[in-house]
Design brief:
The complex is a heterodimer of chains A (547) and B (340). Chain A has 547 residues and is an alpha/beta fold. Chain A is 36% helix and 26% strand. Chain A has 20 helices and 20 strands. Chain A has a six-stranded mixed β-sheet, sandwiched between helices. In chain A, strands 16-17-18-13-19-20 form a six-stranded mixed β-sheet, with helices on both faces. Classes of the chains: A alpha/beta (547), B mainly alpha (340).
């Protein structure tokens, strides 16, 4: 690439405003947005959900939802204003001028067509298929890092893993050598190690082709690591932009500062204040509250015609959780970590091994004992939208455990619900609302209040903060930490995110393919990881090496 | 990207944590928006204004603005009032001794008898008004039985799965495989039914062939709801498996059931009319739209109004139930809404 004295930006967004018309009146999703993308440069737009980051990028490729439109401002692509361009013009631009890698690899490939066909479609639409389209397809897939591309091109999307699908989508996005690639959270649905591989590959490909990338992400660490320039959006406005490393090291706007302080991958480990309190709670590291030994779970997978195959999801796992501490079980998807949570909660029967809670065997409890056990161990699940019954008001949701266990009368239960709401810092007026009126983080706080209603000794958090924005995530983690200090709770914390582990856990078990590959205190795991797998996981945390 | 890797001192494996970030060859300005224009707000603040809205309240709010809902509801209310108090709408009692005079046979409309007379010399308007009750009774009660029976069977099959599901689902499939009209004709010919023909035999017959459809819908909805995290959470709170079904799973499966039941109510009214038309439905002494249409068949050429009026009433009633079902579907499932 030649560098002219006054480089012309490839994409220039000027005073952009985007408005969505809804039944409740117009919603201003983006206001006064300004940023530029230079040829060959990677620019990341960072922000929480609803900040307008995806909307701004989609406007540049003419893919706004039906009720949204650019209400003012300009989008200059190579000098041409495309803010109000016709659908026909966008069709010409898409593919060979502006490519796109969508967010969710699971739903963005058509399940009824072979991968090769879907790539060929893109090539044909842009007149780049040539004389031997199949060879070209294989070439494109090989470029995206898919091994054995001829065979892969003949397979269907369901035969691909999430990472492979995302590679196929990148192949489609880059098939026609666009000058600008819009990548909308391209890896947020993937495991960290896969994310790293894919982003590395995307880096290599785009720098070879000289493609500029507009990367949309909620992860500031990832943005700082992958982009030259970072644009921070908040409530539909650009609050700060500048060189990536400078934004990270010297943030000026209070919102950016707040983001950096809350990002788990960028912040320090659990405070020392906590350890001191833990030591008070358990003088001389007494009896563990939960002891799991040689736990194994084997699933039968039906293969049709009565044939069955055994699949060992959890393989001979042993660990202990001392009272009043947090043990994190970390692993990538399919490592068996959630299966452990379900067995500890007695929602799933174990195949072999022992789960001992406070000296008592779990697994073959009688109905009556099980009922008592339920009071002492409570879960918090991942999906804040699925864990509350949409038909129940917040009051009924939190009151339910009290009613099931016949605690108190109507008046005392209402008082208790108010107390619980206060404990999770929600106003008492929330109690008459319904889950659909609350945000994800607020729902998760309600789920915590429900779990606390029975004054349990242990809480099993199954990816409890994974679906939340960083700021909200930090808030919920802080709440969990506070509750532990106040009430001496014990947490079993299941997560795929090592960065979060550092903020919350005292001890860590790292799992791979159903086995624990390494366990130790959080400091041991982070400062001196013994297994190669743990090292890879740690190294894959985006942005960790930048501060 | 620079590949200056570090190596672990213990095993010599490379550590890939040296991604240093990128520096642009262009000069990038560092812009900060003025704080007055972009004030920082509290993280995830709770909305405290506005009235709390349950899912039903929200559905109601969107429903009451829909013209489709308003029109169909008004029509249904009108039909129900007619069914409950037919004497309010006509001074003629078609069941009375002096109601039908043969001298009026096939007379056209005249003062006080706006729709004319049928072959027996009965007032068509009065018969149509009084016929509403039987048709509506059949529709409402068949729907009730079908929802209770089909809903219960579908919920049990979907929730417990396994062999219960296999047995109940096959049973439903068997009934599903029988054509409704053919099956109903046969059942209505059974001695027990033939000798006691009434509104109730028609209701029972239609319910026998109607429940599998509702069972299927319920089963699907229950299977979807039973895997939700909130059901798992309630089980972990100590709720028994059956209570979880009643308290959480069924309330969350109601939306599609309500929609299908509303649409089907209209369909059952049509089915009753069809059976009566074929002569196996309501007994001839019960006034119903189906019976009137049936007896109009022979007089179609002489006196088409005799067929037209009950058929028009029937169509409008059925149409309003189907429209109501559509409107409710849109309100309960905004995703299915067209165009938006």
């Amino acid at each position: 690439m030649t560098q002219s004295a006054t480089p012309k930006p490839l994409l220039e967004v000027k005073d952009l405003a985007i408005t969505f018309s809804t039944p409740d009146g117009p919603v201003h999703a983006v206001r006064d947005a300004n940023f530029t993308v230079m040829p060959g440069e990677t620019v990341a737009i960072v922000g929480e959900s609803g900040s307008g980051k995806s909307t701004s990028a989609l406007a540049a490729i003419g893919l706004l939802a039906g009720n949204g439109k650019v209400s003012s401002g300009q989008i200059l692509f190579d000098g041409e204003d495309i803010a109000q361009a016709s659908e026909k013009r966008f069709v010409e631009l898409r593919g060979n001028h502006i490519g796109m890698v969508p967010q969710d690899p699971m739903s963005n490939l058509n399940p009824v067509w072979k991968i090769g066909f879907q790539v060929k479609e893109t090539l044909k639409a842009n007149g780049l298929a040539g004389d031997n389209p199949n060879k070209r397809v294989a070439q494109v897939l090989a470029d995206a890092g898919l091994p054995d591309p001829e065979t892969r091109a003949r397979q269907y999307p369901h035969e691909f893993s999430g990472g492979m699908r995302q590679r196929a989508l990148i192949a489609i996005g880059l098939a026609c050598r666009p000058r600008l690639l819009i990548a909308d959270e391209p890896t947020s649905a993937l495991d960290v190690t896969v994310q790293q591989q894919i982003l590395d590959h995307l880096d290599t490909m785009t720098s070879e082709l000289g493609t500029a990338v507009l990367l949309i992400t909620h992860d500031l660490g990832l943005a700082a690591e992958r982009a030259e320039k970072v644009v921070v959006m908040y409530k539909g406005r650009v609050v700060e932009y500048g060189p990536a490393l400078e934004i990270l090291r010297n943030p000026k706007h209070p919102y950016t500062q707040r983001l950096i302080n809350s990002a788990p991958s960028l912040s320090a480990q659990r405070g020392d204040k906590h350890e001191a309190i833990v030591d008070e709670v358990i003088p001389g590291k007494a009896e563990p509250l939960l002891k799991v030994s040689n736990l194994t779970k084997v699933f039968d997978i039906r293969k049709g015609f009565g044939k069955k195959e055994k699949f060992t999801a959890v393989d001979n796992v042993s660990f202990e959780i001392p009272k009043g501490t947090t043990t994190a079980v970390v692993g990538e998807s399919g490592s068996g970590k959630s299966t452990i949570a379900q067995m500890v909660l007695n929602l799933l029967d174990k195949t072999e091994g022992e789960i001992i809670f406070d000296g008592e065997q779990i697994g073959n409890l009688s109905e009556k004992h099980l009922f008592k056990y339920r009071r002492r161990v409570q879960p918090i699940f991942q999906d804040p939208y699925g864990s509350l019954d949409p038909m129940y008001s917040i009051f009924r949701t939190i009151e339910e455990p009290l009613r099931i266990h016949g605690i108190g009368n109507a008046a005392s239960r209402e008082k208790k619900v108010k107390e619980l709401l206060d404990q999770v810092s929600m106003p008492a007026s929330t109690m008459h609302r319904f889950p659909n009126e609350l945000s994800g983080g607020q729902r998760q706080r309600i789920a915590i209040a429900r779990a606390l209603a029975l004054q349990p000794e242990m809480i099993v958090c199954d990816e409890a903060v994974s679906a939340l924005d960083v700021l909200v995530q930090a808030q919920v983690l802080e709440l969990l930490d506070e509750l532990q200090r106040e009430m001496g709770l014990t947490y079993l914390f299941i997560t795929h995110d090592l960065a979060v582990v550092r903020q919350i856990a005292d001890n860590v078990c790292v799992m791979e393919h159903g086995k624990i590959v390494e366990q130790g205190t959080t400091d041991e795991i982070f400062d001196a990881p013994k297994s190669a797998y743990t090292r890879n996981l740690l190294a894959a945390i985006p942005g960790a090496s930048l501060i | 990207m620079p590949e200056n890797q570090n190596f672990n001192p213990e095993d010599g494996l490379p550590i890939r944590n040296t991604r240093a970030g990128k520096v642009s060859k262009y000069k990038i300005e560092h812009y900060v928006a003025p704080l007055e224009e972009t004030p920082l707000q509290a993280v995830d603040s709770v909305k405290e204004t506005g009235k709390p809205l349950s899912m039903w309240a929200e559905a109601w709010r969107s429903l009451r603005k829909q013209p489709l809902f308003i029109i169909s509801t008004l029509l249904i209310i009108a039909v129900m009032v007619v069914a409950a108090f037919p004497q309010l709408f006509t001074s003629i009692d078609p069941t009375g001794n002096q109601a039908c005079l043969l001298e009026n046979s096939n007379e056209p409309a005249r003062q006080g008898h706006i729709m004319g007379f049928n072959l027996q010399g009965c007032d068509i308007y009065a018969r149509t008004i009084y016929g509403t009750r039987a048709s509506l009774l059949v529709g409402v009660f068949t729907t009730l039985i079908v929802v209770l029976l089909g809903g219960a069977i579908g919920a049990l099959a979907g929730y417990y799965g396994g062999w219960i599901d296999t047995i109940l689902a096959r049973l439903g499939d068997i009934f599903f495989a029988l054509p409704l009209i053919l099956g109903a004709i046969i059942v209505m010919q059974l001695p027990a039914f033939r000798e006691n023909r009434s509104v109730w035999t028609v209701i029972i017959t239609l319910a026998i062939f109607g429940w599998p459809q509702l069972a299927r819908i319920t089963r699907g909805a229950v299977i979807e709801a039973r895997n939700a995290d909130f059901v798992k959470a309630s089980r972990a709170l100590g709720l028994s498996k059956f209570s979880a079904l009643v308290k959480h799973v069924i309330p969350n499966s109601l939306a599609p059931i309500i929609v299908v039941a509303t649409v089907n109510l209209g369909v059952y009214i049509v089915a009753e009319a069809t059976l009566s038309f074929l002569g196996v439905g309501l007994p001839p002494d019960v006034m119903s739209w189906g019976n009137d249409i049936s007896s109009a068949r022979t007089q179609l050429r002489n006196n088409p109004t005799m067929l037209m009026w009950p058929a028009l009433f029937l169509s409008v009633t059925v149409l309003s139930f189907i429209m109501l079902g559509d409107a409710v579907r849109d309100a309960l499932d905004p995703k299915a809404r067209k165009g938006a």
